[in-house]
Write a structure and sequence with these properties.
single chain, alpha+beta, four-stranded antiparallel β-sheet, 9 helices, Reverse transcriptase Ty1/copia-type domain-containing protein
Amino acid sequence: METQNRIEDQHYQPLQPTSPSLEIDSETDSEDGSNTSTAEQSPSDLPIAKRKGFRECWDKPLFPISRVKHKTDGSVERLKARLVTKGYTQAYDIDYQETFALVAKLNTVRVLLSLAANLDWPLHQLDIKNAFLNGDLEEEVFMEFPLGFEPNDKRSVCKLQKTLYGLKQSPRAWFGKFTRAVKQYGYVQCKSDHTLFLNHTPYGDMTAFIVYVDDIVITGNNEGEIQKLKGFLAKDFEVKDLGNLRYFFGMEVARSKKGISVSQRKYVLDLLEETGMLDCKPAETPMDYTTKLGPIQDSPPVDKGRYQRLGGKLIYLFHTRPYISFSLSTVSQFTNDPKEEHMTAMFKILKYLKMSPGMGLFFEKGVNRGLEIYSDADWAGSITDRRSISGYCTFLWGNLVTWRSKK
């Protein structure tokens, strides 16, 4: 275990604040206030979920920086520190059972944005502070005391009463408790997306919200009902009201009289800088459609890991850049044996993004208040196996909400 701790120490680097007034937002005080654990004598027959030791940083020697919170413009908002257990030491059927937790579908988020743009509904955002500390533990889990906290009895350990960050069941326990709470307020869980909750009043008022871990986006046709929902949530959880929706799931949201725009400009610029393509010559198309890519034998190989990492980062842009889906699905077929031509095609996508890094989706009032679906496919278009490539896109009230391209 000592060797393991030494290895982990190498991954924690002290962070310096960018401003003397910048403070560390610690969640350890919240853990104390939430009654997350009690001290008990160590049971000899049960495994202990080890804690990640606190690492020295700045002038707070007991707290590790686990995350740097950024604003939409890229500047540092605050530094966050939290205690994280070593969940990988947990044993199945002893320390945990089910771990699956629901995650919001981005398709549903775009549907809400289309409705809000067409019906002039407001968009609010909430953040549940220390969300995972609210989950109730069903299992008996013990944790060693963190460094810097010495019990009177050396044989004592922490018996967890609540979930902590790092436990395998924490996301599931948190979402379960949140779901039970909002159902008591009269909200109904959507069957097609269980992270979407709806409420209809007898007076025709409708409120809808979607939750992604600890971030909540709310919309509806009655501002009073939205404020009532915020009050309900504040009774059971520590809620931070972020006001109008501006930044969600790495996407920048802006609203005007014409509609709602969603982009990932900061993400694109960071990716271009990381790959050394910030000063590259922009391309007008994401790929050369006159040439069909396939397996190449007589071509120098490229770094497989680098190719896969770049492809994975580009996939994240699917949320707001549907026009690169076909190009990226094409180059993703060669992740097991990438060649120089494949990497060139991958960088062609980056050059296309350089043309307009702030471009994204725009949701406006549509003339046609309905659902439109378009699809297309070629015939044996793949030069590798002669399989067809198909695709579709769905418009709700004139706004693009879902799309896919598949071989």
